[in-house]
Amino acid sequence: MAATPEEALLLRHPVFVLQITLFSVLIAACQKNINLQVQGNVPAPLVTKIPLSVGVYYPGQFRGFTYTENSKTRGKWHIASGSSQVKTFNRILGDMFTDFRELDSAVSGEADLVVVPEIAKMQFSTPEETGFEFFEAWVEYVVKVKTREGEMLPEWRFTGYGQATKSRFSAFESGLAASLSDALRNAGAQLATGFSEHPPIRRRIQRRNL
């Protein structure tokens, strides 16, 4: 029986077949099913309290934020961090302002400033992907602010970045979780130092201090 064109190709190029097989094995080895609940521990900021009342409203997507991915190379990832995101913002904003509270809605009039944070993007890289000896995480935030009078101020964007050295963790999942926890600490530091310097916020503070 004559060989089919596909069989003839395989017979002529056995190395080609081996390369495809090895590539498939490498992809399978890189795939991991990840299911994590990340806990963050953000230190209190060393700041002087600002004499403003601030309310924060957490949309459902922020409060329950979960990073999900389902790819051929990485597998299925499910990384929940919403509760830690809320704790981070509460900790920092609560220590920054003399009057701070959580709000049930973003309706103006309940505080001098109404803050509504969102997560625009979350990304991860692993030692296997980059060749470096650490896990990395990035979280991009968008902070929307309204005044008591209902004026929408220009939004503020910033990115928290975290690293976790591979050698410190025996499990892949632990390294990922640690990199995101580090990104939350970095985000908390940026929130503590940068939010009050955002020009429209700084002008409000300056007017209050006159």
Structure in a nutshell:
About 40% of the residues lie in helices and about 35% in strands.
Task: Characterise the protein shown here.
The protein has helices at residues 5-12, 14-30, 60-63, 82-96, 127-130, 172-194, 199-209, and strands at residues 34-37, 50-56, 66-71, 75-80, 97-102, 113-125, 134-147, 152-165. The chain is of the alpha/beta class. It has a single domain (32-209), classed as Rossmann fold (3-Layer(aba) Sandwich). Strands 5-2-6-7-8 form a 5-stranded mixed beta sheet. Strands 1-4-3 form a 3-stranded mixed beta sheet, with no helix packed on it. Helix 4 runs parallel beside helix 6. The N and C termini lie far apart (95 Å). Mean pLDDT is 85; it is low at 13-30.
* Count of DSSP-assigned helices: 7
What integer value in Å does the Rg equal?
24 Å
The end-to-end span amounts to: 95 Å
Strand order of the largest sheet: 5-2-6-7-8
Portion in strands: 25-35%
Coarse shape? elongated
Average pLDDT number:
85
Supply the CATH superfamily name. Answer: ABC-type transport auxiliary lipoprotein component
Helix content: 25-40%
How do the helices and strands line up, and which of them pair or pack?
Layout: H1 5-12, H2 14-30, E1 34-37, E2 50-56, H3 60-63, E3 66-71, E4 75-80, H4 82-96, E5 97-102, E6 113-125, H5 127-130, E7 134-147, E8 152-165, H6 172-194, H7 199-209
Helix pairs in contact: 4-6
Give me some keywords for this one.
single chain, 210 residues, alpha/beta, Rossmann fold, 5-stranded mixed beta sheet, 3-stranded mixed beta sheet, 7 helices, 8 strands, 39% helix, elongated
